[in-house]
Design goal:
The structure is a homodimer of 518-residue chains. Chain A is built from 21 helices and 16 strands. Chain A is α+β, with helices and mostly antiparallel strands and 518 residues long. The first copy, chain A, has a nine-stranded mixed β-sheet. In chain A, strands 13-12-14-15-16 form a five-stranded mixed β-sheet, sandwiched between helices. A two-stranded antiparallel ribbon of chain A has the order 2-3. Chain A is elongated and about 95 Å long.
């Protein structure tokens, strides 16, 4: 191994160093940096290199997708289709219709809906005409759609890309362009019945995706607000203290308390009171305890939330999913528009997984949220000139994180995934049979058979068979002079190399028989 | 009828006048304008009205989608799904994989690819970082993908939205955000074999969509260039004269000639020579005639094109589609990147249709192009630092136009279209049975049955049955106290009102049996 190789071998992104064709000096410099900086520096260098142009003087074009985005290759598309099918099957099983909205909205449609996160909205350039922004989620366009069409009852799903100018972390499935799979129920109904169905759907989808153990945390904005009130938080600090609470899954209570006191000016004893509540989590027994709580029981808003929470757990028990649901007073959610129950599903590595991880690394891995949602009874009214309200509750499945996990698994498993559905390749071993291949493949297409031919005049049989092996085509229909005279086709099974002669009139039936079970 | 009504009745967009609540004066002003201006003026007025605010002082929010875009409601989505399924089935039948790319690209990726149409590209606002543009088509992102991943062979389809700041004409299916369904074959193959398959696919899809009669016009950029050369067009005017020729489907030859001579400075006798060629169209007999043509036969480039065209027609005959294909020398196509065969499919109303139309209106209706494409052997090379070429040929199906036709048809036919797939509603005639409904619906979901319940505690049976009628749910599973005791469920067929008692353990099987054929 040469000097370049030795140095590069120590670096984490060795492959990229080679591919980028970096000089020895640069590689050595890179290796002196902490690993997490290397990829970033490398990206900058490659960009610089591209801008400077190549040796032959032709300015080199920067060949990449925009920051935080990616292409899906056929394999990734096959995984994506699989995930989407599981999700839409569940949405349809619950009787949802689907809608679609434009990728951009009038800028003012998005204004005032996302609080601090508004800075992450992509705006379009003012090229004359309306000011537009790319959609940030599917919830606000849904509310705009309901108000615009005066719809008061609908159960709909919407699967589409949304856009956030956030700091991407693509290895963990965080992108600037990403899919959301939303299911929402709009309408004036009895409390917690649609809310329970949303949680049932999350449970169904996460179970069917087989991602391992998971947990669904629930809370209610009214419980939070009531709790803030009894702890003595001034009303104008509810939302900012709520944001602080929301960080409890990322930092210990002491740090959160510090943010409340030092940054947000809360009295330490008020923060301590909040601390007593937000560290609580449990099932319906916790709800019963809080309903008896000396302070909370005196607060109307909190009691509304707690009574609904109790009802919710009863419905979840009837739906057979209560076991995975945890009432967690530290769950707060960032968005402004929630008005009632809120929830978030997280993947929880099993005991065995945790032990392995703790042996290898010092700290447990935060696998992050894969679904979230809640009730937003005021959003549609914001779009209605007469402020007519349409109560809504919904959930959004975060697909990229799930893709990442499934992609990693597929790679680890060494399992092959087909990217086409071709049932048969029409091939030949002899020359000058292109016309016959074309006639036969057209016959097969006409009968609905998925079939291909080589685009060469006189392809080699070996190459045609190899193509089948590579792409997973199970059958080859081989034409030869003799077969044409006899009115038969030689059908070859790629996996077993078995070959049989089939009457041409029976070919479609034979192919169907041999491929339809797959 | 009052004065307002009388005046408005004369106006074409009468309905909009009413809905906009315009004053008498405004309506009178509108009625003095030519019809085509009214809709435009009306839109401006409504916008102004919205900006000025409503009577109650609350500034009214402009509740609309951006210009040239639309939402898809559940019915439209059902049609869209149907169209997409037909198209993807065909793409898969021909062995294509699928990919996806981001909705935006680096601005420079799109630069220099679209000629004059570049002004229609949507740019994103410079918010720091890279300069981005929304994709204008799927072909350039595909070429960028191939070059970036060094792919030299692929047969892929891509269905996604593209964006053009064009003048929308939404009633004719022309939008600023619209779907393209692209199928392309990249790779170094023998001439015209992949090209013929693209045309075969267009034929398949248009036949299966049952849109009525259609015709696929073909030409070759080399035939056009060779023809321009022998007619004496200076080389630097090839592209601009090509654009003029492309207008021949919209205006008579005399006007096109005038554009060539008066605007583009061509000698009248040169234009006349072009005129002799571009008014020709026919089948393979026309190719044979042109191959013998005194001037064209001397031109190497034209002869290459003509020989390939001859080959193409032979392959199309083998594929059984030559009958619908017309060699048309006036077909030129706008985009710069085509290098060989080009094609465009148009709907051609049948004789009966034409007669009806000519009775009602004075001029025949231009139904417009629904699919187009061609060969672009140089585009991938534009992205490759070493200019390595990857020959490509492809076709793009224009979906919005097809949606418009299918929507209009569905409305005219009064046919009902379901927007959900729910098989059964779990209902009750008695009070206090919500819990039992929840348990039963959860059982059904678990078995994969698509089922719903009312979200009311104590819904009326009549309302539940009405819901089934409205949404097309075929079955109702009715629970009552007596049925619970007997361990049965009453299954009601909505269409016939027939009711039978089914043992609870057999319910899933019974529902499957009664709904799986639909």
């Amino acid at each position: 191994m040469n000097k370049f190789g030795t140095i590069a071998a120590k670096c984490w992104p060795r492959f990229f160093c080679y591919r980028a064709g970096l000089s020895d000096v640069v590689v050595r410099m890179l290796c002196s940096l902490p690993n997490e900086q290397i990829a970033e520096e490398l990206a900058k260098l490659m960009e610089l290199k591209a801008q400077l142009g190549t040796n032959d003087g032709k300015p080199q074009f920067l060949l990449k997708t925009p920051k935080g985005t990616r292409d899906y290759n056929p394999k990734q598309m096959a995984i994506r289709e699989k995930v989407f099918n599981i999700i839409t099957d569940s949405f349809k099983r619950h009787g949802a219709e689907t809608i679609d909205t434009p990728v951009f909205e009038l800028k003012e449609t998005l204004t005032g809906k996302y609080g601090e996160d508004s800075k992450l909205i992509y705006d379009l350039k003012d090229q004359g005409g309306e000011l537009l922004s790319l959609r940030y989620d599917l919830t606000v366009p849904f509310a705009r759609y309901l108000a615009m069409n005066k719809i008061t009852n609908i159960k709909r799903y919407h699967i589409a890309k949304v856009y956030r100018r956030d700091n991407p972390a693509m290895t963990r499935g965080r992108y600037r362009e990403f899919y959301q799979c939303d299911f929402d129920i709009a309408g004036q109904y009895d409390p917690m019945i649609p809310d329970a169905e949303c949680l049932k759907i999350v449970h169904e989808i996460l179970s069917e995706l087989k991602l391992g153990e998971f947990q669904i945390k629930v809370n209610d904005r009214r419980v939070l607000d009531g709790m803030f009130e009894v702890c003595g938080v001034p009303a104008d600090k509810f939302r900012t203290i709520c944001s602080a609470v929301d960080k409890m899954d990322k930092m210990p209570w002491e740090e959160v308390k510090n943010e409340m006191v030092a940054e947000k000016g809360l009295a330490p004893e008020t923060a301590d009171k909040i601390g007593e509540y937000v560290q609580l989590h449990g099932g319906s027994e916790l709800i019963d305890r809080l309903v008896q709580d000396a302070k909370l029981s005196q607060n109307k808003v909190a009691m509304e939330g707690l009574n609904d929470m109790k009802q919710l757990f009863e419905y979840l028990t009837l739906f057979g999913v209560a076991e995975k649901v945890l009432f967690d007073l530290s769950l707060a959610r960032g968005l402004d528009y929630y008005t009632g129950v809120i929830y978030e599903a997280v993947l929880t590595p099993s005991q065995a997984d945790i032990q392995t991880q703790q042996n290898e690394h010092s700290e447990p891995v935060n696998v992050g949220s894969v679904a979230a949602g809640g009730r937003y009874d005021g959003l549609v009214g914001m779009f209605d000139p007469k402020n007519r309200k349409v109560p809504c509750v919904g959930v959004s499945i975060g697909i990229e994180r799930i893709f990442s996990i499934m992609e990693q698994r597929l790679e680890a498993s060494d399992q092959k995934i087909r990217t086409t559905e071709t049932q048969v390749l029409v091939a030949t071993a002899q020359k000058k049979l292109l016309e016959e291949r074309m006639k036969l493949v057209a016959e097969l297409w006409k009968s609905g058979i998925k079939a291909e031919i080589s685009y060469k005049q006189n392809p080699k049989l070996l190459n045609q068979l190899q193509y089948c092996e590579e792409t997973g085509i199970p059958l080859v229909a081989i034409i030869g002079e003799q077969e044409l005279k006899d009115g038969v086709i030689k059908l070859r099974v790629v996996a077993t190399r078995e070959e049989i002669n089939v009457e041409r009139v029976n070919l479609v039936e034979e192919i169907m028989k041999r491929t339809c079970q797959s």
